[in-house]
Amino acid sequence: MCGFRWKIEQLHREGKQLTGLERCQCRKARIQRNHIGCALLVWVRLKELALQTGRTVYQIKHGLLDDYLIQQLKNPSIKMVNA
User: Fold this and answer.
1) What is the pLDDT of residues 35-44, one digit of tens each?
2) Is the Cβ–Cβ distance between 49 and 67 less than 8 Å?
């Protein structure tokens, strides 16, 4: 029973830390439910990738951010204009 409870706690913690679940600024209940649903879909995909690659969900997320930052530094999507 404790092992099952721990899995639920892990889901809540990872969901909040990795998907922006707690940062929702929406006021309407329907939009809040949509936000929660999208966040949980992201968490499920991160968990699948983590199991497939033998890494943690945190390593997967930070790896995605690292890849994005490297790509943006090499070829920025928003160009700076010289004033």
Assistant:
1) 989 988 989 9
2) no
